[in-house]
Design goal:
Elements (H helix, E strand, L loop, with lengths): L24 E4 L3 E4 L3 H6 L6 H22 L6 E5 L7 H17 L6 E8 L5 E7 L1 E4 L11 E2 H8 L11 E6 L5 E2 L10 E2 H13 L6 E2 L4 E2 L16 E3 L16 H7 L4 E3 L2 H6 L51 H12 L2 E4 L13 E9 L9 E5 L8 E3 L2 E3 L2 E6 L6 E10 L5 E4 L14 E5 L7 E3 L6 E3 L4 E3 L3 E4 L4 E10 L2 E2 L3 E2 L1 E5 L2 E5 L1 E3 L10 E10 L6 E4 L5 E6 L8 E3 L7 H4 E4 L1 E4 L8 E4 L9 E2 L6 E14 L6 E9 L17 E7 L7 E2 L10 H7 L20 E6 L11 E10 L7 E9 L22 E6 L7 E8 L5 E7 L5 E8 L4 E7 L6 E9 L2 E9 L2
Parallel strand pairs: 3-4, 4-8, 9-10, 25-36
Antiparallel strand pairs: 1-6, 2-5, 5-8, 6-7, 11-12, 13-14, 15-16, 16-20, 17-18, 17-21, 19-20, 21-22, 21-23, 24-27, 26-33, 27-32, 28-29, 28-30, 28-34, 31-32, 34-35, 34-36, 37-48, 38-42, 39-40, 40-48, 41-42, 42-47, 43-46, 43-48, 44-45, 44-47, 49-50, 50-53, 51-52, 51-54, 54-55
Helix pairs in contact: 3-5
Amino acid sequence: MRKLLLATLITMGSFAAFTQKIKIESIPGTQIVDYAPTPEQAKERVLPMGYTEMMKAKLEADKKIAANIRKSSTQTANFQVFYEQGSNLSAEVKSVFERAAATWANALNSDVPIKILVRWRSLASGVLGSAGASTYYRNFPGAAKAGTWYPIALAEKMARKDLNGTDQPDIVATFNSDRTDWYTGESTPTRLQYDLYSVVLHEYGHGLGFIGTFGASDTVAGWGSGSFVGSAGIFDNFIVNSTGVSLIDSTTIENFSAALRKEVVGGKLFLNSPSATKANANKQAKLYAPTTYSAGSSIYHVDQATYRIGDPNALMTPSIAAGELTREIGPIVLNLFADLGWISSSITHDPLTDNEDTSKDYIFTAKVLGDTAIKDGSVKLYMTTTNSIADAKEVPLTKAGNQYSYTLPKSTERRKISYYWQGEDLAGRKLATPAEAPLSPKGFANYYQFTIGADTVKPVISYTNNIFSIYNTDTEINLPEGQAYDNIGIDSAYVEYYINDVKQTPIILTYTTNDKTITFNGSFKFTSTQFKGNDVVKYRIVVKDKAKAKNTRFSPETGFYEFKVLKLFPAVNTYINNFDTSPAAPDDFYLKGFTFSKPTNFTSIALNSDHPYKNGSEETFEVDGNLFTNYIAQLLKPITLRSDTAKIYFDEIVLVEPGADGAVFPDRDFFDYVVVEGSKDNGKTWQWFQSGWDSNDDPDWKKAWASLNLDKDQNSKVVGTPSLFRKREIDMLTSGDFKAGDKVLVRFRLLADPLAYGWGWTVDNLNIQGPSGKAVIVTPTVLGNEPTSTIEVTISPNPSPNGEYKLKASFAKATKSVTINVVNIFGVSVFNEQHTNSGNEFNHTINLANLSNGYYLLKLQTEHGMINKKIVLAK
C-alpha cells in the first residue's frame, strides 16, 4: 500500500520555529473552473414556463428598489476592477464586470480595496469562466482561526491592512472570450444565451471565499494537500456531513482516506454556518457532492437539485442554464460570508522581533477594529518571561481611542518575552492575536515570542544541492536558488569552495530580502582550460547574521557538497561490455548511486544500483514539494547513431517501487522508475529514448515486489536473483528526439521518491549498436506469463492537437456497455461517458479540448475487462 505524499519539511514556513511561535505565511492561489452544464445538470436546470416574462417584471421592480437604495446608501467596500493587458473588451462587457463588482461592494464591508484582475481569454469550448483568490494567507494578526488559510481579500478585511501589495490583484477571474452566446445587457437573455452578469457574480463569489482546500482521486479524498501544507481553508471549517461531523475533524474521519472520499461523494454535505442556517429557515444549507467527484465543482458550490432556477440561493450552484438569471447573492452566501469573517472584529498588531538592544524601552501597541463595537475593558495583553505561556500575566494598558499600548521598561538582562492579546466584541466574538491564543482548540500553543539581548541564534538555510558532475569544458555553473532566514536579519552570504582541495576565492552571492528572509543566487565561473578529467570541486554555502557575534550557519552543516569534473571520450559507433573482463569499464562511466559489483548469489559483475537504493532526498518535485534523488550511470563515450539499427540491448532486473494503479510515466503517481536517456548537447539536456518503467513492467518483478515481503514502512525486502533477469531492447530513434548521425551520450537513471524503496536495478551485457550476438544474453527462467487483454484499442490522433480522439476498439466477446474514463496526472477523473453497445466493435470520438495540455490516462471498460491507454493533449 502506497503511503501518502508528505510536504517537504524544509520550507520557508518552517523558519517560524526558530523565531516565534507564529509567522505570517502566504501561498499562491488556485482557481475553480466553471463549465457549461453537462447533460445531467441540464436535466436539473430547465427554465420553467413563463420564466423569462416573470424575470422581466422582477427586474423592473428591482430597478425601482435599487434606485431608492442608491439615494440612501453608499458602497461599504471598494472593489477595483482591472483588465489584463491586451484585452479588447467593449464598454458593454466592461460594464458587466463593474456592475457585478458593485453588487458585491454593496454587500460586503472592508477597509482595504479589493482588487480584481479580469482576463478575457480564449478558453475551451465548454468553459464559461474561472476564478479564485490570487493568494492565501494564514496566521496574520486579525485571523480568527490559527493555522487556517484565508483568501487574500478576506484576510485583508480581517487584518485591516493590505497584505500582498497594492499592485497585486486579490482575485483573478477569467472568462471565455470565444463564446458567442454571452448576454451582456441588463434585461433578460434568450433561452440560447448565457447571462454574463450572473456568471461574473458567481465567479467573484469564489474569489471572495466560496473556495477551499479539498481534493479527491479515484480512491481517497483529502484537505490541505499540495501547497496548502496540511492546513484547511476557512470555508472548509464549516463543512459537515449529515450527522454533523466536521469533514476536517481528522480524529473522526482520517484525512487522505477512502472514508473521507466516501463523504465527499456521498451527496450529504452541509454548511454548519449558524448565520446561514438561521437565514435558511433553520436548515443547514446543502452543498454539491455528486457521486462522481468533479474537481472544481464538487463541494465548493451549493447543491444543484436543492437550489433550482429562481431560488434566491441559486447563484453558487455548479451550473447555469441558458436563459437563467442569478443576479442576487442570496441569504445563504451572504450569511455564510459573515461567519467566514466578512463581519468580524480584529486585534491588529505588528509582532515584536528579536533585538540585541537592551538600552531602550519596548512598546507594545495594538488597534482594535470591528464591525461590532468592542466590549469595554475586554482588551488585555498577557506576558511572561518564563518558558511557560501558562505563566503569562495581564499587564496594564494605556488606551487612546481604539489603540492600546504597554511599555516594557529597559533592562540589562537578556529576556525572552512571550505574549498575546485578547478581547471581545458586543456580538460575543472572542478575539485573540495571534488567533486562538494562547492555546488553540487543537491543543497547540499559539503566542508571540521574541528575545531582547545578545543574539546566539544562527541563521537557517534552505538549500538543496543538485550539482553532482560537470564537464571539463564548462565555464559557468549556476547554483540552485536558495533561501536563508535569521531572527534579526542576514549580514552576508557567500560560497566557500575548493578545487582538488586547493582553496579558491569565495563567491559572493546576490540576494533579495523580504523581511528577514533572503533569496540568494550565484554561479561558479571557470576558465576553459582550468579542469582535467576526474578533478573534484567541493563547496559549501556560508551565511552570517547581523548579530554582534556574527552567528554563522553552513550548508551542509558539516563537510561539503562535492561534484566531479567529467571528460568525454571521442565518439564511437558501438559500445559492448559485459563488465566482467574489461578493466577500463569504470573509466568509461560516471557513476552516482551505482557500482560495478557482483551482488550476493550472482556469478558475474554487472552495473548495479545500491542494493537497496535510498529514498529521494536531494531535489524537489515542483508538483507537490516532495524530495527525489536521481541515481545515474552515464557512459562517457558518445555514440554516433546509425540509420539502420540504432539499438541498445541489455539484461536487467528492476525491483523498484511500482506506481499507483493506472499511473502513466512520467506522472507523479508513477513513483520510482528506471529510464534510459540520451543527450545530443553534451549532457546539458536529456530526453527519454522510451518511457520509463518500474517493477510492474514484468509479471515476475511485480510478483516479487507484491509478495508482501515489506517492512513497516512499506519498503520491499525482496532480493534480486539471476532468475529475474530479462532482456531489454531500446530503439534510440523511436522517440523522434534523435536522428541518424547525432552524437549522443547515453545514461541509465533510477529516480527514487521519498517514501518507499526496494532492491533496485542491475544492468548486464550492455550492447549499444553492436551485432546482436556479441553481448552475452541470459535466457531467463520464465515463472509466469503476463496476462493479455481481451480488448484492443487504437486511438488517433495521439497526441491530439485539438482535443479530439477517435477510439476504435475490438472485443474478444460481444459487449453491451462501454465506459470511457479519463484521469489526469493526479489520478482525478476529468472525463467520463457511458455507452450502450452491441457486438464486438466500438467506435467513438471524444473531445477533451477543455483540458490543459499534458499526459492523461484513458480507461476503457466493459463488462468483460478494462484496458488503459496513455493519451497526450498538445494543443
